[in-house]
Amino acid sequence: MSNSNQQQEQINIELDEKIAEGIYSNLAIINHSSSEFVLDFVSIMPGIPKAKVKSRIVLTPQHAKRLLKAIGENIHRFEVAHGEIKDSEQPSIPLNFGPAGQA
């Protein structure tokens, strides 16, 4: 591939400081409709019965599948480098989102 073709295929992605800080999440809730997947990221604190969704990502089914594949590949590379990630048992958390809705 020529150098000019490579330059045309590059995407310039900006990351501002606030977004770069990230948001901690220890719970992900995933819902879907026929046209989209909705990923809600929550931070639950021990002993506190209420938590808020900190971030929501809405994806097409095709992008959700690509994300699943990308996360799987990255977990594999991490485990090759650092060893198996142990999956500890988590207590079930009763979730109450109020009335159920559709996207």
What is the terminal-to-terminal distance? 42 Å
Radius of gyration: 18 Å
Q: What is the succession of H and E elements?
A: HHEEEH
Mean pLDDT score, rounded? 87
Major sheet summary line:
3 strands, antiparallel
| Helix content bin | 25-40%
Tally of alpha and pi helices: 3
Structural class: alpha+beta
- Inertia-based shape: globular
Spatial sequence of strands, sheet with the most strands: 1-2-3
Percent range for β-strand residues: 15-25%
Q: Indicate the low-confidence ranges by residue numbers.
A: none
**Total strands:** 3
Please give a handful of descriptors for the protein shown.
DUF3467 domain-containing protein, alpha+beta, globular, DUF3467, 103 residues, 3 strands, 3-stranded antiparallel β-sheet
Write the layout of secondary structure elements.
Blueprint lengths: L2 H7 L7 H5 L5 E6 L4 E6 L10 E7 L1 H22 L21
Pfam families: DUF3467 (PF11950)
Protein name: DUF3467 domain-containing protein
InterPro entries: DUF3467
Give a short overview:
It comes from Flavobacterium xinjiangense. The chain contains three helices and three strands, in the order H-H-E-E-E-H.
